């Protein structure tokens, strides 16, 4: 008798925890003076987005359904997607124990799974969410070899289980960085890359009696196998026009590969070929100075010229990709000021990343899509605008971070409660 009673009490104690997410995802209508849908509907004036049970029910104009909870905003958009970041895998970049982006002393490279180091409690997660980003693509950093490892996709809820796709892509670096990690030259980097592909293709014979191939360990070769077969996206960092041409040559030699390029500062010079080969690029549209010999032709018009040529463009912040991924909206706004159409800039933060990484039902406001929705107090690409509400899978997310809590704590602190250092 006692045992069933204890079990019943335990079940009752656990019940509220199990029901909490469903209770939070209540039906709501989000009304916007402007609703940017990311679909053929375009931008709606006085639009209404209805969400329920984690999905978007309807997108249109008019009024909210009777009796439904409502949120009013100047602008409404899909949840933004950071197409390249290291958010959540480092807390303090300069402190080795708090930085899991790379492993310079590890014998492994392509097998390193960045998701193993993801911390949903990391302070940059909430900061990123507060700026309207609901999904992030997180990449490891190449420290010892040109193969950095396996990247993943996550939401910014800050909850356990927020990684929704591990090993979503393989990441490697070419150009200057690849050269320095491969012995000092671009020929060395390309020899290492081709040798690694051979290790994978001849895996059975090469690793029958040995743990190491010409370039990769057994584990690294196994991890890279889906990418070599064309079953996994490969993100390649390359910036100089000649490096981009070499990547495209390699793609032509291996037509089954799924390739996207990160950086592409001189991409505008080879934009027509990138478009013809349907290779998307992930760019920092604020990169406009010759900071290295790989960026001599960098320009603020890079994103606009790439898009005009028909290249799929995603915009990110590569200058601080761990803590400031959120600044991609400002960078996109800068691109608009330098010729990129507004709608294309918004696509570069939503539909383009969703397309690159195969995120179905994300990056758009459409019936049946996942209810990642952001309400804004102004134009999303204006530096003075900010989200007023963020939904991830229909759940209203807290609009606070460690920074906002500290601000609120000390902004109204009574002078008598100030620490000694602040009293004099």
Automatic annotation (TrEMBL):
Keywords: Hydrolase, Signal
Signal peptide stretch: 1-25
Any GO molecular function: hydrolase activity, acting on carbon-nitrogen (but not peptide) bonds
Keyword Hydrolase recorded: yes
Amidohydrolase domain segment(s): 339-393
Top-level taxonomic group: Bacteria
Protein name, per record: Amidohydrolase family protein
Organism of derivation: Hyphomonas hirschiana VP5
Classification lineage: Bacteria, Pseudomonadati, Pseudomonadota, Alphaproteobacteria, Hyphomonadales
């Amino acid at each position: 008798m006692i045992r069933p009673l204890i079990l019943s009490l335990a079940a009752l104690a656990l019940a509220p925890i199990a029901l909490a997410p469903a209770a939070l995802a209540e039906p709501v209508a989000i009304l916007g003076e402007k609703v940017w849908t990311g679909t053929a509907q375009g931008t709606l004036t006085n639009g209404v987005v209805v969400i329920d049970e984690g999905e978007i029910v309807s997108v249109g104009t008019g009024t909210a359904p009777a009796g439904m909870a409502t949120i009013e905003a100047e602008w409404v958009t899909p949840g933004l997607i950071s197409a390249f970041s290291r958010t959540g895998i480092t807390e303090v970049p300069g402190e080795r124990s708090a930085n899991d982006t790379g492993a310079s002393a590890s014998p492994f490279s392509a097998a390193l799974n960045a998701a193993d180091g993801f911390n949903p409690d990391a302070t940059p997660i909430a900061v990123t969410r507060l700026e309207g980003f609901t999904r992030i693509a997180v990449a490891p950093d190449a420290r010892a070899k040109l193969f950095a490892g396996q990247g993943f996709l996550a939401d910014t809820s800050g909850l356990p289980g927020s990684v929704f796709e591990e090993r979503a892509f393989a990441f490697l670096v070419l150009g200057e960085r690849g050269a320095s990690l491969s012995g000092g030259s671009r020929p060395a980097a390309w020899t290492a890359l081709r040798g690694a592909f051979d290790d994978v293709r001849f895996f059975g014979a090469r690793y029958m009696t040995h743990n190491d191939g010409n370039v990769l360990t057994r584990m690294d070769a196994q991890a890279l196998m889906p990418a070599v077969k064309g079953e996994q996206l490969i993100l390649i960092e390359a910036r100089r026009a000649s490096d981009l041409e070499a990547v495209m040559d390699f793609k032509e030699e291996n037509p089954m590969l799924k390739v996207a390029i990160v950086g592409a500062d001189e991409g505008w010079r080879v934009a027509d070929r990138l478009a013809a080969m349907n290779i998307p690029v992930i760019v920092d549209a604020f990169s406009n100075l010759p900071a290295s010999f790989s960026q001599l032709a960098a320009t603020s018009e890079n994103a606009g010229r790439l898009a005009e040529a028909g290249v799929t463009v995603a915009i990110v912040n590569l200058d601080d990709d761990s803590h400031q991924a959120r600044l991609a909206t400002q960078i996109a706004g800068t691109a608009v000021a330098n010729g990129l159409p507004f709608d294309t800039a918004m696509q570069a933060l939503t539909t383009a990343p969703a397309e690159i990484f195969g995120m179905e039902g994300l990056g758009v406001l459409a019936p049946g899509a996942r209810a990642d929705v952001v309400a804004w107090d102004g134009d999303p690409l204006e530096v003075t605008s900010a989200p007023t509400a963020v939904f991830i899978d229909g759940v209203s997310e807290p609009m606070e971070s460690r920074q906002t809590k500290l601000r609120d704590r000390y902004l109204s602190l009574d002078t008598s409660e100030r620490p000694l250092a602040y009293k004099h």
